[in-house]
Amino acid sequence: MITRRPPEKSVWGPLLLLLTPLLAAILFSWWWLKRTPEAPAKPAAVETPGPLASLIQSAKEAFSRRSVNATSAPARNSAARSASLRPSYTLDLESGVAGESPAADLWWHFETRARRTLDGRHGALLSVVEGRAWEQLDAAALAGIRYSRASLLAWGIDDVVRPGTLIAVRTAEGNFAKVRIVDVKPGTTDLQIEWEVFPVPRAASKGDGGGWERKLDLAREAYRDKRPDDAEKLYAEALAGAESFGPANPRVALALQRAAGMYWSMQRLPEAEQRLVRAASILKGLPSETVAGELGTANERLALDVLWLLAIVQRDQQRYEDASESFRATADLARSAKVAPQDQAFNSLRIASSLYEHAMAECRLKRNDSASRALVTARSVAPDTPSTQHVIKSIDRLEANMASGRSCWN
Q: How far is CA 39 from each of CA 30, 36, 45, rounded to the nearest angstrom?
């Protein structure tokens, strides 16, 4: 009888089962690399960022467009700063920060994709400069310019916002700035600008009051550097220096108004109001020519700025009775101001805005008849320009809310 031996088991079977997936992965990787075209050779000093580096870089660029800050690189000379201002964003020229704030100076305003304007914000005034070179615009030259326009067209045959245009600005904080349009394209696009800020030239005085103006500038810088304790101390020292000219001198009102702005932004509203009330009492009945003689033409509307901020502080404390009266007083003061023909549009906008806020306060106090009368007057004085449509739309909304019985601010 022949006995058949069972076949011997091979070790290669299990080994192939283990190696097959690995070999397949290697072959697939080789095939993928061969089918992907190589990038063109680059100089050794330039590295192609990987996916993670590219993602991080994109995030940084997006953030820089969202918030243009003080690290913006100069465009043409070491003193100037540059920024790419996104559609409908505002810019504070002193800090270089984009975003709505009481200190924002410029608004790249889009009513539609085609209808665009560069507007002054919070009292900042603009003036197109012709016949002068960028290098000729220093603090003294800017102080001698007549500031009259709050809105510059960037569309149509009368557009002035175009590459190379030079614009002088009297900022919301009372300084001077020169702005150059670097690039602007049709449609919903960024506005490329460069600018330089100059403090107001010091007015002639009997003394420097311990350098009170310099301390005001240092206080503002300290607050922006997130050193509020230092800012508060410097504002107190600046006020003491201003008071050396007399307790009722306009310098005192300016120091009080600057400090009040800081306290308002910190939401320390009672302290802001205390300073604004005193500033308003100093400026009450004082001719704007006198204020300009002491503080320069950039601050000739200081009384209006004080009353406006006082009304906002009272509104933010939900003291609508006081706010209503202060907004109405702001409108009355703007009406009685001596205004040059070229400044009429801006002054009318100030009146209309004050009357709208007065009407809003009256509405919250359930005094709709008074609110309606204020809105009618606001509409009649509001200039019909692209840059004032937001005020007119606010008036329409408030009238519709009162007519339908909805709350005032819906």
A: 17, 9, 16
